[in-house]
Amino acid sequence: MLSEFLPLASNMQELDLSRNTIWIAIEPLLQQCTRIFKLRLSSSQLEEENMKLLIEFLPKASNLQELDLSHNSIGMAMEHLARQLQYCKISTLNLTDTELKESHFKILAKFLPKASSLRELNLSMNEVGMAIDPLAQQLQYCKIERLTLSDTKLKEDHIKILSEFLPKASNLHELNLSNNCVGMALVPLAHQLQCCTKVVHLNLYFTDIEDRGIIELSKSFISIPNLTVLNLGWNEIGNTGTDAVFRHINHLTKLEYLEMDVRLDMKCSALVKVCCAAVGKDIGWKRIRMDHKECQLIQGAASKYLYTVMFLV
Fold first, then answer.
1. Distance from CA of residue 249 to its chain's centroid?
2. In this structure, are residues 192 and 198 in contact, taking their beta carbons and an 8 Å threshold?
3. Is 313 part of a structural domain of the chain?
4. Is 253 among the domain residues?
5. Which of 118, 163, 217, 247 sits at 20 to 30 Å (Cα–Cα) from 174?
6. 81 inside domain
């Protein structure tokens, strides 16, 4: 058994048992993992009872900082986990696809402020729904820097609620809302982002956003100059939205990666010139991706130039 050999690996810092059936041996295994720094148990068929055994062990794992429980069934063990977080040093917690519902997230929100070590929280592929309200309210009392809410069944009303509390989340650096229905809620989200000067990574991939919202978002660029990654991919962005992005993009002086899927009509030649002019400025970009075609920047004598542009016409 694996647990019999773990004491021999006294210097082991990371243990990945993902995609294994370990629930039968979970207790003796945990007894030997007290020095582990990273523990990955993704897709390990951990059900509620075994999850409770794992959670009871967490305070004893004094070195544990990263825990991946994704693709398991946490269920009602969520309350026990939320309570134990205050006694752990876990800084990164991955709860992707753990069959969590609104009621579970309300419980998690209650204990988040006590989880003083938590910096990164991934709640993707769960049903957050209206629990976004208590979660958003508690962000101001947390030290969370990276929040991933991809594919959490969020609608426009939910995004509006989240937007209201974003300015109070002073520690937030990265926000991932991909694969949700942001839609026209991008307008209030963009307004509130103007107060989120620490945000460096914003992911709005496949969020049903259109030109009007993009225009408002581009106006907020001047207030978030530290943004390094902006993902607007898999959204139907037309002439006016693309024009707005590139007219304001010079404010994002630290931008390294921009992804967009643009849909332009045949009268786009003037717009392409605007795009090229914007990119021609001294912006330290490493790569731009448009319509899944990478646009490369090459170093010229005095500035950077756009090498290729691929638009979906």
1. 22
2. no
3. no
4. yes
5. 247
6. yes
